[in-house]
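agent> fetching stored inputs for the S-adenosylmethionine docking request
agent> found them:
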Amino acid sequence: MTIVQRLPMPTMRPALSPVETRGPLVDRFGRVHRDLRISLTDRCSLRCQYCMPAEGVPWLAKDNILTTDELERVARVAASLGITEVRLTGGEPLIRRDVVDVVRRMAAIEGPDGPLEVSMTTNGLKLPELAPALAEAGLTRVNISIDTLKPERFAELTRRDRLDDVLAGIDAARAAGFSPVKLNAVAMRGVNDDELVDLVRYAVSIGAEMRFIEQMPLDAGHIWSRVEMVRGEEILEHLAEAFTLTPVGQRGAAPAERFLVDDGPATVGVIASVTAPFCGACDRVRLTADGQLRNCLFARTEDDLLPLLRGDGDGNGIGTDDDLAAVFVRSIGAKLAGHGIDDEGFLQPDRPMSAIGG
Ligand SMILES: Nc1nc2c(ncn2[C@@H]2O[C@H](COP(=O)(O)OP(=O)(O)OP(=O)(O)O)[C@@H](O)[C@H]2O)c(=O)[nH]1
Ligand SMILES: C[S@@+](CC[C@H](N)C(=O)[O-])C[C@H]1O[C@@H](n2cnc3c(N)ncnc32)[C@H](O)[C@@H]1O
Ligand code: SF4
Ligand code: SF4
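agent> prediction call returned; pasting tokens
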């Protein structure tokens, strides 16, 4: 069971503190945290096999989902602690009804280097409807998941017959001016590992960056297998049969190792979270849709912000911004060096990817 660290209930009323600098979020290993990944919902319009089971998903309690005011408050405190970028994810972030308002409010928050940069990872289904409004609200870039270009395969893999809608979403993202547009595919043996080259060709043809992701043990259905997973090395071997790949340096804290495709300018990325973890440069902290702060994708403990945000429901016991900041500092202070997938006794987090925020 996930150990939730509940805080003693503070007794102060909220102090509407102005944005102030509280200093950077540095962990015991010297990693400075600049990226807050916020899950807007655990719900989704697809049921990708590597992420969610077909049925019986234990949804988060609706009453516990953070309101937009609460999200804004937490992001403002995070910005005062050195966070410069907010990534909206889920579940599927675009099924949150007020997603455009969330983007607008996040993009208006002043961070240490100016307004927060707001990006999103999405399955793209609602982009034809929402892309222009999201761009106008301040969203700068999107990563869209597309694991296959074959409609039947897509329907089997995601359990929904919606490939055309994803393709329309990608077109809408480009038309709205998001830049760059990155495409994510989880490489799966016997499912889409014969399509990697085609996916790159499609991405190159539309000026997007294709990225292949190693499957991680975070699925609610527990189908992950170390033996079956397609390793980053294998992905590169497949691609090298069709393209000349030249490493692009300067990876920084990014999960993707990038390569020029032939002579460029197109690039392809490989996110080898399992076989070549990038934890040494990690700059990420996560907020779940129900207000739990997680210092790692694979964390087995969380810090509950809800008591500080809501008090007892009658306005008593709500924490100050300093109280919220103290939880961030404590969470990052307790962060482990890495995810430990290779350690004996590794335990998958109790929350599935869709409820953590991928
Ligand atoms: N292990 C690990 N995987 C991550 C982390 N952040 C994102 N990923 C995975 O990387 C894949 C792509 O995620 P995205 O949401 O597109 O994020 P990103 O690749 O960091 O995005 P960019 O900032 O555009 O490079 C997904 O499978 C994520 O679960 C992380 O901190 N640790
Ligand atoms: C959890 S999803 C949430 C955002 C959105 N619904 C989407 O699919 O892009 C974020 C990313 O995590 C990836 N993902 C989900 N489950 C994964 C797993 N078990 N291993 C690796 N990546 C995974 C998805 O492919 C997607 O690119
Ligand atoms: S990967 Fe994204 S689109 Fe697929 S089920 Fe998970 S949350 Fe939904
Ligand atoms: S697994 Fe944890 S420590 Fe490693 S990069 Fe991801 S969030 Fe950071």
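agent> quick read of the result: Residues 44, 46-48, 51-52, 90-92, 123, 145, 354 surround iron/sulfur cluster (ligand 3) (CB under 6 Å).
agent> awaiting further instructions
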